[in-house]
Write a structure and sequence with these properties.
5 helices, alpha+beta, about 170 residues, three-stranded antiparallel beta sheet
Length: about 170
């Protein structure tokens, strides 16, 4: 009876083994490249009272305005994006706004709730992110997020910061 020799089988099947390894490597690379996404993020910190959550104009802060269709429509227009390829809903769904939990506020909340006191806190720091797919390129996410934030800050400052009362008295 002959002794099993693995080297003989490897020599016999070496071209097939190499071909399968190369094909699998190319397949995995193609799959991973096509499923890659890019994310651009920015941190926004509002200078408002965290106990009331009121803007400088005295209204309640609404961070969902960042994802509004009016802002996204202007982003599409300013960047010259094809509305057929980039719909408002598509871009809005790829934009996320998440609050950043402040460790001190979490501890304060737990302490106040344990003692039975009422606790009110409105977050003032948020992370805004935009996600793009591989075919759009790595700079697309940053470009869209920058434009969204530029338009949002412009709208926010017009509504809340640069509001001045003018008197138009007729005499």
């Amino acid at each position: 009876m002959k002794k099993f020799q693995i080297s003989r089988y490897i020599k016999k099947w070496l071209p097939l083994i190499i071909t399968v390894c190369i094909a699998l490597t190319i397949g995995v690379h193609t799959f991973l490249s096509s499923s890659q996404t890019y994310v651009a993020s920015a941190v926004i910190n509002y200078s408002i009272d965290s106990t009331t959550g009121l803007t400088p104009a005295g209204t309640v802060l609404d961070v969902s305005e960042i994802k509004s269709s009016s802002i996204m429509a202007r982003v599409i227009e300013n960047l010259g994006l094809d509305p057929g390829e980039y719909s408002l809903d598509n871009l809005i769904s790829r934009l996320s706004v998440k609050e950043v939990a402040d460790e001190d506020e979490i501890a304060r909340k737990e302490a106040m709730l344990e003692s039975g006191e009422e606790y009110t806190y409105v977050p003032t720091t948020y992370i805004v992110s935009f996600q793009s797919v591989n075919s759009e390129g790595e700079g697309f996410a940053r470009e869209v997020l920058d434009e969204v934030l530029d338009i949002y800050f412009s709208d926010y400052s017009e509504k809340y910061v640069n509001k001045t009362s003018t008197s138009n008295e007729l005499q």
